[in-house]
Sequence to fold (728 residues):
Amino acid sequence: MSESKKSVIPEIVVIILLLAAITLSMFYVINKKAVAASANILANSKLVLYEGPKSLKDATEEDLKSTSENQRDIALMRCTDTIVKVNGYDCFVYDTNVNHTRQWVNTYAPPLSRTPITYFDFEGAAVIEVIVPGRELDSVKISPLSYGITPEIDKENHSVKFTITKPDAYTVTFNDSPERALHIFANPIETDVPSPDDENVIYIGPGEWNIEAIMLEDGQTLYVSGGAVIHGIVNSNFGKNITVRGRGIIDGSHLKSWQGKMAYIPLKFDNCDNVTIRDVIVLNSNAWVCQAFNSTNGVIDGVKIISSRPNGDGITLQSCENYEVKNCFVRSWDDSLVVKNYDKNSKNISFKNIQVWTDLAQSMEIGYETNKGKKPDASITNITFEDITVLNNFHKPVISIHNADDATVSDVVFRNIVVENAQMGSGDGAEMPYLIDLWITQSGNWSSTRERGQIRNVTIENVQVLSGKFSPSRIKGFDAEHTIENVNIRNLEILGEKITDFESGKFEIDEKTTKNVTIE
Amino acid sequence: MKTALRIVLIILVLVLISIHAYGFFGIKDAPIEMNPENLVVVQAPDQTEAMEHPDFIKEEYVTVIPEGKNIALEGKATASSFTQVYHARRAIDGVVAGVSYWEGAPNSYPNTLTVDLQKRAPIHAIRICLNPASIWAKRTQTFAVKISDDGENFKELVPMKQYTFDPDRNNEVVIEFDTVETQFVQLEFIENSGATGGQVAEFEIYSK
Fold:
């Protein structure tokens, strides 16, 4: 090495050290900036908390027993075994009824369990801390899993902490058990709150209220404020231009199970036009929950439903046209999202960005009744289920078209469906433990017409089953004249396995009654 | 070369100083908690039990029962049509509550509901009832009252008129008229704002 080269070695060494120091300093500054930004988001976050009604009873150990509604108080209560703090502030937690029974109960009195729910509004970030003093925490899951939230678990203090930045419904599952899972409805900050002085507004403020029935008329808005609990129902018949909205709760725990006789449907809009239902929480219905019949041009947006009693379907659209259902959360003890024909034809219905937890029956169901009104040329057409996250599906199929009448069911799309936990076939669901079930049938329970129908043009794409069972699927028409045709399944993945042929997907396909069924 | 390296060295030192200066002065540490001013708590009223909501407390209403006896209970009811299980006989069974009512077939106006009193009788009033529960929301029905001695040839007793049925007023309509003798009394419906056919939970016909 020449002398001149030797003489610059110290400079080169210092330059290398400086570059290393600069690199480390940049990492430090970037990290500091990220921490500051995060703290800044939190510092500037907004939070709206709603006190629960002071009259709600505290849930005791006795109230948490899994038994029939004849054996214990099923009232909506204040939860006492789950504490929720948001950004350090206590958030009111309700204790409502759910149902872990995986079979139909003829007495209409299945054992009911309880689970905690809470809600708040926020903007920016919400650091949620959940404390369950009586419970050992082996694992905690935050759904939807697509957010990739890894909670900090403090086993010693029986607590879990995680941060959210997007308003949505979040479910905290402890120890891989559906029992006492916590549902958190984290709403955006509410805007455009209607005025109580508006003569077209029925304004229900915070508190616990007995209102037998709120029957809405043309042009009216019902506002159920956060912190309000209404024991009653909200209906309209032949109404137009009606809105139901607010953060509050519509509760049916004061009513006995309908026993197949008197169903008090909390949200029932029959023969209506232009009805919008937004944000409200509906609990403890004595039968099914949100019904529209022979109605047109409806929007159901951000509604949260938990049902536990027999025939507790979540959202059931019967003979409706031009309906948009979006951003909802439905946990139900019967079909969660349903389309059927009781009278007129169903047409142009979309379900989008919805979370579903189906304790009994199907998650997304068209049928069984496709022409209960025995109309000529009955059809159900242009129905879309898109961006649906199925948190749990315990009983019957996730995706189903059951045509038990003579209608033609056509142009149906199931797209971007994620099943977080597939447990089809539990209990008496073993008779149809399918992931996908397209079936033309005659049913003693559900058929009204003598003639059978058709199923045409069904697209099922981007379906992912993340955990649980590798369930079979079925595609079966009725006979050579009543067939299922043009079904295309694309990008199906079950438990990490890409399914590109029917055999590996455990499909049962009846070749005599189906045509042009493809998978890719 | 040495000079060039020294210039690079000086630049790197300046860069390092700048980074640290930015980190120290340019990034402010924010508190890792929410500003309490950004918290709103919507408070609940003091309640010890669920309360009737003041906007839904019904004014007291006294049911109107015409003088005399409801002789429809002893008659036979028929209708031009019915829907589902809501037969005509449910309109004269003395039960107003629950699902004991008659409803005409959807969109098949005019709907008629006729009571055969079995023999001619003097009548002076009728009372038409729907279930008074709030779920039977306020509605209008347009109908005429007709009478006949043979059940085939009816003449108008009360002309076609729109009536309001309001659950806050017991969902009842009472129509009084001069006493008339007849065997058949018929309601002819042409409109119902709450359903697609005429509806009657109880059709009462009064005789002194």
Remarks:
- Chain A touches chain B through 67 residues (CB under 8 Å).
- The CA atoms of residues 226 and 247 of chain A lie 4 Å apart.
